[in-house]
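Entry 14. Ran structure prediction on the chain below.
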Amino acid sequence: MLVTAFVLGLVGSLHCVGMCGPIAFMLPVDRTNAYKKISQITVYQAGRLFAYSLIGLVFGLIGKSLYIFGFQQQLSIAIGILMILFVVVPSSVFNTYNFSKPIYRLISKVKSALGAALKKKTADTFLTIGFLNGFLPCGLVYMALFGAIASGNALEGSLYMATFGLGTVPLMTTAIYFSHFLKGAARQRIQKIIPVFVVIIGIIFIFRGLGLGIPYLSPAPVNELVTGAMECH
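Output, C-alpha cells:
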C-alpha cells in the first residue's frame, strides 16, 4: 500500500505546486550560497514530512480503533468508495455542505504563524515553515489521509503519510525550474491525470477490503488464514 501513497504524492505533485508552490517560492533561502540554499530547502521538506507523519499517526490510530472492532475490511471498502466519490461527484455538491467551517479558526492561526515565519531568517525558520505548511488544507492530502486510516495502525498510518510526502518532494523542490514548462495546456493535461490515479487507488482499496485471496492486491482476511492453517494440522 505504500506504493499507492508514493504514486499519489508523485502524480499529485503538480497540484501541490499550485497550492503550496507560492510558499516554496517565498522561502527566505540564501540565494548567494548554493550549498546553504539546498540545505535550507531540505530542512523545509523535512518539516513537511514530519507534519504529514504526525497527522498520519493520529489518523492511523483512528483506523486502529476501527480495526479492533473488526471493521478493517469494511473500512478499506468504504474509503475506496469515498475516494472515487470525491472524484466523480461535482465539487459544487461538497461546497454546499462545507465541512471545513469548524476548523477555519485553526487554519487561520496556522496561516498567521506561517506568514510570521516567512519573515524570519533564523536557523529553525525553514523547519517551522515546512511543518506549518503540512497542516494547510489540501484535497490531495485528504485522499492520502484516507489511506492512513485504512492502514489500521498508527505506525503504518504515519509511514503512509510520510511516503506520500516523499512523493511530492521531487517536483516541489524543483518547481521553480519546471514552472516555465508546466503552463497552459500541458498543466491542464497533467491535472486531468490526477483524478484518474485517485480512482485507481480507490479501486485498489476496495479490492483490498473484499479479501479475494489475491496476493498483495486483495489478501485473504486474517481469520480465514488462521482457520485454513488449523485445518491443515
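The chain is about 75% helix and 0% strand. Will compare against last week's run tomorrow.
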